[in-house]
Amino acid sequence: MDVGHRMWAIPEGYIPGKSFQSEREFVSHETACILNAGGAPANVTIEVLFEDREPVGPYRVVVGAKRTLHLRFNDLRDPEPVPRDTPYACVIRSDVPIVVQHTRLDSRDPHISLLSTIAFPIT
Amino acid sequence: MDVGHRMWAIPEGYIPGKSFQSEREFVSHETACILNAGGAPANVTIEVLFEDREPVGPYRVVVGAKRTLHLRFNDLRDPEPVPRDTPYACVIRSDVPIVVQHTRLDSRDPHISLLSTIAFPIT
Amino acid sequence: MDVGHRMWAIPEGYIPGKSFQSEREFVSHETACILNAGGAPANVTIEVLFEDREPVGPYRVVVGAKRTLHLRFNDLRDPEPVPRDTPYACVIRSDVPIVVQHTRLDSRDPHISLLSTIAFPIT
Amino acid sequence: MDVGHRMWAIPEGYIPGKSFQSEREFVSHETACILNAGGAPANVTIEVLFEDREPVGPYRVVVGAKRTLHLRFNDLRDPEPVPRDTPYACVIRSDVPIVVQHTRLDSRDPHISLLSTIAFPIT
């Protein structure tokens, strides 16, 4: 049985450029939490779209069979880092079904704030 | 392939009238984050509904092909500003498929708080 | 066109019993934000379910045509108030299509925290 | 009528290992809020997946007919506790239809922060 979809969208991307502290767990970040509940590795590509310039990508990650990956957009490097303090969106594609959830930890303020939603399944 | 839907609903609209500081990034605001992953511009209209008076709109925005727009309801002016401290809801229509996510940053309190959800797809 | 569904579910209900201040806008509360984008009033019933006793309800509200209602569970009185500090869930039914979003403002802590999600459409 | 689905996924699991206080209501926790609106008990199993090791489970819980259960992942013990400060995901299966919502209360910081979303329905 297919556990999920092969294409997902997240319209609301934004990595705050500031953080009240520098520990990795508290640094402002945004994640695409990817669940691959199937028996084959998921080859995943991410296309990042912006308000006023051409899309960037694909970024590539692999999520093993029966594994999850909580991917920080902050950690993406190739083809280029995702800019901070900049609205973006993304389209995530996989060669096998996956489920994607979007989460942000915002620590610009001296206290953390969280948001999360299941991403939107396209196909 | 259609990336999204042409009509979306957000039942929970509320722009807090206060903010603990005046910088744009920290002012209490509400956004409809719109992703247009397709090859044609999206002509988008927004109808705002209230608890005790007739709907207002349409507000009109354009989201370019392969672009996102993180639209602040705070910034809408025509036909009239969206009132603060007032429950509202909205229906968003587009001539091409889009994906919509709803986010609020509430800074009435001296620390920010966030909420977000993918909006509800109608058609 | 039907804008929404006639039956919705919210599994996560919890009204915190404490609030750091008594102003209505900051009192800990939970809402079902209901959008009725159609041309006829929505007659809505709410059934509240618990962990360890029989369901309570129906609670009844009307949402006018082309109106929204941001209903606070805190305000429900008939047949009985929704208990504080108690896990609950609810099923919301309407005679016309509606869209429902679930939001909580938690102000037990001296700073507010928010959560929100589109409710789950059943039929 | 079926109220919900028999299989759900939550990609974003993370139980913070710290809490600013020890009262149960404020301890950092993550819940799967399960609604069983039907007339028969729900026999539920939970499989927990990780980034870098084999899945663990099944964990088993029963949700009575016409009841909700706000299950804390923190409380799971058999076959083993869910590790803290560790990304995970889960697949939830039931023999009757249920609805699942995912919520986290994060109190690592001296103020609580919340996130919530309806989980993703598979079948």
Topology:
4 copies of one chain form a homotetramer.
Chain A: E1 5-13, E2 29-36, E3 42-50, E4 56-63, E5 67-72, E6 88-106, E7 113-118, E8 120-121
Antiparallel strand pairs in A: 1-6, 1-8, 2-5, 2-6, 3-4, 3-6, 6-7
Structure overview:
The structure is a homotetramer of 123-residue chains. The first copy, chain A, has one domain: TM1070-like (Hypothetical Protein Tm1070, Chain: A, Sandwich). Helices cover 0% and strands 54% of the residues of chain A. The first copy, chain A, has no helices and eight strands. In chain A, strands 1, 2, 3, 4, 5, 6, 7 and 8 form an eight-stranded antiparallel sheet that branches. In chain A, strand 6 and strand 7 form a beta hairpin. Chains in contact: A-B, A-C, A-D, B-C, B-D, C-D. Chains C and D meet through strand 1, strand 3, strand 6 and strand 7 of C and strand 2, strand 5, strand 6 and strand 7 of D.
Features:
123 residues, Hypothetical Protein Tm1070, Chain: A, 0% helix
Overview in brief:
Four copies of one chain form a homotetramer. By secondary structure, the first copy, chain A, is mainly β. Helices cover 0% and strands 54% of the residues of chain A.
